[in-house]
Write a structure and sequence with these properties.
Elements (H helix, E strand, L loop, with lengths): L13 H13 L8 E5 L5 H11 L3 E3 L2 E6 L2 E10 L4 E3 L1 H6 L4 H24 L11 E5 L7 H12 L4 E8 L2 H8 L4 E6 L19 H22 L1
Parallel strand pairs: 1-2, 1-6, 6-7, 7-8
Antiparallel strand pairs: 3-4, 4-5
Length: 232
Amino acid sequence: MGTTNHKNIQFESRDDALLRLMDEMLMWHLDIKNSIILATSLAGVEFGEKMSQKLGIPLDFLFTVPILAPLNPECEIAIVSENMDIIMNEALIDSFEITLDYVYGEAKRAYEEVILADIYKFRKGSMISSLNQRDVLIVDQGVETGLTMNVAIQTCIAKGAKNVYVLTPVIAKNVANSLAENCDGIISVFKPEHFVSTAHYYKTLPPIDDEQVEKILDKSLGKIEEKSLKQK
């Protein structure tokens, strides 16, 4: 499933990509009664919301921040999540001779200065939904290096998730194979061997602004709180 490999394949839009991803998901026959969708990028929030509406399951967001090389601000050497889980690109860290003290120090700073601010801005200070004994569908519109997905999987496991699946329309084949070792399944439409960039596989991919993200997360948080109150 999801192994089609054509250089010029493109989705018409996010909606087209979502419909085709949902078709792939149907083949897995997942039991979604106790599931939650977890978006991993601000650009993927709208994607996650539409999937949430189609499946009738809640949406939440996992905040992460990349840690950059000290002398190359465009090179990600690690990523930290709101759970303070850290995934490192050890090959880059070794080649740049970066110390672990630097990585952990930057992770702490990113958590305090960026993640906490984003949690208050987009989730009104609330912590992430309980993932304990739930099936988590980690969703994004495309997966490139896999660092973000890897830290998301680690956070889900640390928070007691029952099963963890990665759902994305397009993901590099080598990244999919690597992630599959740490989760219960990778569901995708295309797994190109020579991945270009997420935008390359979409004919149109308009940016998502902060205001849209706030509205979506406000609405999803309200639904989660409402469901929680009903269960008490």
